[in-house]
Design a protein that fits this description.
Number of helices of chain B: 0
Largest sheet of chain A: 6 strands, mixed
Structural class of chain A: mainly beta
Order of helices and strands of chain B: EEEEEEEEEEE
Order of helices and strands of chain A: EEEEEEEEEEEE
Number of helices of chain A: 0
Distance between the termini of chain B: 34 Å
Helix content of chain A: under 10%
Number of strands of chain A: 12
Radius of gyration of chain B: 13 Å
Number of strands of chain B: 11
Shape of chain B: globular
Structural class of chain B: mainly beta
Oligomer: heterodimer
Largest interface: A-B, 26 and 27 residues
Distance between the termini of chain A: 41 Å
Strand content of chain A: over 45%
Helix content of chain B: under 10%
Radius of gyration of chain A: 14 Å
């Protein structure tokens, strides 16, 4: 069975600090990988995704993620966070060729202080 | 021009009642989903329909019954509501599985509180 692990449950940063959120998945086959963001009181929005090709993926709002197949990881990064990045971040995977069942990690709550 | 919409946004009801949540998407997608987000923000898939056919049915109490009248709509009916059903329910839609375009787009959520 697939599973997704997000190592950091709560992260607190000051504005302009760099961000890296860890995500590891467990699955023996090929996967698609996603990062979603949920701002307070809002729905999930897609930040970025990886299906194939260049393992370094750029998303919206200056976020990027790198797929490292050998480590089963898909860590999210941003060089300089802003107060408006305060949100919950979810890593998710689905098995390619399956029914598109998204398996989510537990989420990481990011708080950015001015 | 909302892509995935849900009604109602908030739902407060008593234990034992029956309620429905509606979802509509105007993205032209064939596949729709229901997810439950619990109080700890954990998201778990419940159901998925592809072109009105049920393709994912996770271990969910049979008090929950999805219905898809057409490709653009997926409703969730819940019978005999229990306290543990309190959660945020998200609808999502995508192109069909294995299409290479199966990114899921989420609705705004329905916050259900059972008293």
């Amino acid at each position: 069975a697939q599973s997704v692990s997000q190592h950091n449950h709560h992260v607190i940063l000051s504005e302009a600090a760099s961000l890296e959120l860890g995500c590891n998945y467990s699955y023996g086959g090929t996967v698609n990988l996603f990062w979603y963001v949920q701002y307070p009181g809002q729905h999930l929005q897609l930040l970025l995704k990886y299906f194939s090709g260049d393992p370094l993926v750029k998303g919206i709002k200056g976020f990027e993620a790198e797929f490292i197949k050998s480590k089963f990881s898909f860590n999210l990064r941003k060089p300089s966070v802003q107060w408006s990045d305060t949100a919950e971040y979810f890593c998710a995977v689905n098995a390619r060729g399956g029914y598109n069942k998204l398996i989510f990690g537990a989420g990481t709550r990011l708080a950015v202080h001015p | 021009d909302t892509a995935v919409s849900q009604t109602p946004k908030y739902l407060v009801t008593q234990m034992g009642n029956d309620k429905s949540i509606k979802c509509e998407q105007n993205l032209g997608h064939d596949t729709m989903y229901w997810y439950k987000q619990d109080s700890k923000k954990f998201l778990k898939i419940m159901f998925s329909y592809n072109n009105k056919e049920l393709i994912i049915n996770e271990t969910v109490p049979n008090r929950f019954s999805p219905k898809s009248p057409d490709k653009a709509h997926l409703n969730l009916h819940i019978n005999s509501l229990e306290l543990g059903d309190s959660a945020v329910y998200f609808c999502a839609s995508s192109h069909p599985p294995s299409s290479g375009r199966e990114t899921q787009y989420f609705g705004p959520g329905t916050r259900l509180l059972v008293l």
